[in-house]
Amino acid sequence: MNPKITSILVVTAALVLTAACEQKVKTDSKAPAASVESNDPFVIAPRLVNKAGAFELLAIIEGPDATEQFVKNLQLLKAQRAAIKQFKEQKEQTDEVKKKAEEVQKKLDENIAIMLKLYGYNADKEHMFLPARSALVKVTEGKKELIKRIDSPAVHLNLQAMRGKYAELSKKDGGNPAEAQTVAKKLMEEFNYDVKSTYEIDILKGVLYRKVD
After folding, report:
1. Rounded CA gap, 158 and 88, in Å?
2. What DSSP element (H or E) covers 75?
3. Are 44 and 57 in contact (CB under 8 A)?
4. Can you list the positions of beta strands (E) in the chain?
5. How many CA atoms lie within 13 A of 100 on its CB side?
6. Which helix (H) or strand (E) covers residue 118, if one does?
7. Is 125 a residue whose pLDDT tops 80?
């Protein structure tokens, strides 16, 4: 094993950060201890290099529940930072406003500390989260049907990009119906994705990378 990545975590039960900025962080007491090994033979690159720079692998997050919670955790940190900024930008810096900003800052600091412990996530560093394995699921009247398993971050991101492009091109105002149909055809050919149906994408395995200074 590369000595630079011996601290990699395999997380199968994620920390739950509450959505409200004022509330305390909750953790799952039943969560198993993180391991440095994975039972899945799927190979994940310990190091990635792209236009943004070089990134080293920090954590492997297993299962749709754990990966979904991790994404929610990141969203919460972002929301708490935004709340603090709004408090500080208010023209009238009353004692109540300052107190609220301090309370949210305290919760943010607590959450960041737990994220560091669980995932190796450092708020002062640049990170990249990739879906190493995902599933395209069709939802019909509450019933779910697996349409396609995706075992590549590039393919997952391509699917998301195509979905976004179709949504943009199919807008009534400023859209392009002809190009939208072209994208719809590609979605069907490559992913058996019918734009008239409803789908969800479950991330089965996520990988977290941190940028190398």
Report:
1. 39
2. helix 64-89
3. yes
4. 9-11, 47-50, 53-62, 127-140, 143-150, 198-211
5. 16
6. helix 95-119
7. yes
Instruction: Using pLDDT thresholds of 50, 70 and 90, give the confidence band for residue 138.
Output: very high
Percent of the chain with pLDDT over 90: 34
- Per-residue pLDDT, 172: 86
**DSSP codes, 149-172:** EE--HHHHHHHHHHHHHHHHHT-T
What mean pLDDT is predicted for residues 120-138?
Answer: 91
| 8 A C-beta contact, residue 120 and residue 9 | yes
- Rounded Cα–Cα distance for residues 45 and 76 (Å): 28
Mapping DSSP to helix (H, G, I), strand (E, B) and coil, where does residue 9 land?
Answer: strand
Instruction: Supply the pTM of this predicted model.
Output: 0.69
* 73 membership: H or E segment, kind and range: helix 64-89
Q: Which residues contact 37 (CB under 8 A, 6 or more apart)?
A: 10
What pLDDT is attached to residue 134? 92
pLDDT at 25: 38
Quick one: which of 77, 36, 40, 32 has its CA closest to 59?
A: 36
Residue 68 vs residues 14, 131, 172, 203: alpha-carbon distances, Å: 9, 11, 32, 7
The tens digit of pLDDT for each residue in 152-188 reads: 888 998 999 999 999 999 998 888 999 999 999 999 9
